[in-house]
Amino acid sequence: MKPIQKVLAAVLAVVIVVSMASCVPVSLTKQWSYKYDKTNYDIGVYIYALYSSYLTADSLAKDVKGYKEDESFLDLKIKADDETKKSVARDWIIDKAKESGRELVVVDKLIKENKVKLDKTAMTSAVQTVQDAWDMGPYAMYGQNYYNPLSKQLEPYGVSFDSFKQIYVSQTGNTPYSLKTSALFDSIYAKGGTDEVSDKDLEEFFLENYVDYSYIPVKLYDSSTDSDGNANNKAFSSKKTKKIQTVLKAYVKEINNGSADFDSIAKKCESKYGVTSDEEVKNRVDSKKSLKSSDKEVYKAVIGLKNGEAAFVTKDADGDSPTAYIIVKNDINKDKESYVSGDNRTGVLQNMKSDDFKKLLKKEAKDLSKDKKFSENEGYINKYSPDTFFEKPEETTTTAGNDSGSGDSES
Predict the structure, then answer these.
(1) Is 329 helix (H, G, I), strand (E, B) or coil?
(2) How far from chain centre, in Å, is Cα 302?
(3) Cα–Cα dist 368/291, whole Å
(4) Is residue 216 a contact partner of residue 280, using CB atoms and an 8 Å limit?
(5) Structural domains of the chain sorted by starting position, each given as residue range(s) with its CATH number in brackets
(6) For residue 63, with 0-12 CB atoms within 10 Å meaning exposed, 13-18 middle and 19 or more buried, which class applies?
(7) Which of 125, 270, 348, 386 is 20 to 30 A from 44 (CA-CA)?
(8) Phi, psi for 312 (deg, rounded to 5)
(9) pLDDT by residue (tens digit) across 238-284?
(10) How far apart are CA 345 and CA 100, in angstroms?
(11) Contact 214, 327 (CB under 8 A)
(12) Phi/psi of residue 283, each to 5°?
């Protein structure tokens, strides 16, 4: 997926939810949120930043005592994973929205100051992707013809096409995916950058922070599909489950005592349990941080192994889809060249320096207040409140004798 498509796809959920929220106050005259030198940023840039921050705050608030789906969470105190102090959600949202808006300005400012060259072909392609999504819908970038133009969803909230384009071509975040942000990131940390990361330093980071592993998944449940096409899973009996687990644990011992390797055990699992080659995963390379976040069970197993050793793990043991895994840790040195100086270098570099880059943007955004070229339309920005986006869920009522399937409905 292209960088601009990654950004667009990542935030499409926000766009869809926006269409269901209560209306944001919209001015009939064109308003701006920020100015830098001769560049204006429409108020839509801030509106979108405010709503994105609102959604993030909502997800954080769900873990806070007192959160209720049918009540506003804006008076609850929240904090992100990288924060030490809690803040009232309403204030947190406003602060993050203003920070995001300023960072958008900073990206353009630094690109101009550092004379960063943008790939014209990539820029043309990025703008066309955004235009297609605006005119035809978010699925246009995948070549699908499902007509659901984002313009109809966003314009009523004060987000114009120009705002939309500024957001997605210059989107900032934890990982520099977008076209402009990526170009700026590379101008600092990539080969020939002002703070270039050497292959040696990148290799040290890679070997310390990444892990290479393979695994074989074996289902401990039956799966069927009902007449409506819904999947129904049912865990095996405890007796059958224990029998399979005993065999798989024996396979792990074979790998660990050297009498078998991953490939030979994979063939046995294919023959005995119907595990396909597509289900097997060989030489998967993940950052330890991302693996720990996405799959704690696998992370704990892999981290405790030496190269070539195997472990046995069962996931969702008490659920309806329990799955057993034979996991083998591989030598991370084997493919390091690809990740240090080859095709995968960019991803490792982003993981290594994204926190530093994020801090740089935050500092520059804060320092904009001292820059005479910068203006913030506080009077107009402050008209927009996070309270605007809360909408109490509608109650569902059922009338006896009424066929709920009759008639048409819109959402």
Answers:
(1) strand
(2) 24
(3) 37
(4) yes
(5) 3-196+346-389 (no CATH), 205-337 (3.10.50.40)
(6) exposed
(7) 125
(8) -115, 130
(9) 999 999 999 999 999 999 999 999 999 999 999 999 998 889 899 99
(10) 27
(11) yes
(12) 50, 50
289, two tokens: 């941080």
Pairing state of beta strands 221-225 and 231-235?
antiparallel
pLDDT band at 142 (very low <50, low <70, confident <90, very high): low
Whole-number Cα distances in Å, 102 to 41, 168, 342, 361, 400: 10, 15, 34, 9, 55
**Tokens 């035809």, residue?**
136
Contact 31, 380 (CB under 8 A): yes
pLDDT of residue 140: 64
pLDDT of residue 241: 96
Spatial neighbors of 125 by CB under 8 A, at least 6 apart, are 2, 4
Distance CA 315, CA 62 (A): 25
Whether 301 contacts 313, CB under 8 Å: yes
- One-character DSSP codes across 77-92: EE--TT-SS-EEHHHH
The predicted structure's pLDDT at residue 230: 83
Segment (H or E) for 69:
none
The number of angstroms, rounded, from the C-alpha of 272 to the middle of its chain's C-alpha atoms is 37
Q: What gap in Å lies between CA 176 and CA 353, rounded to an integer?
A: 10
Q: Which of 258-267, 354-363, 387-396 has the lowest mean pLDDT?
A: 387-396
Q: Could you give the CA distance from residue 379 to residue 390 in angstroms, rounded to a whole number?
A: 22
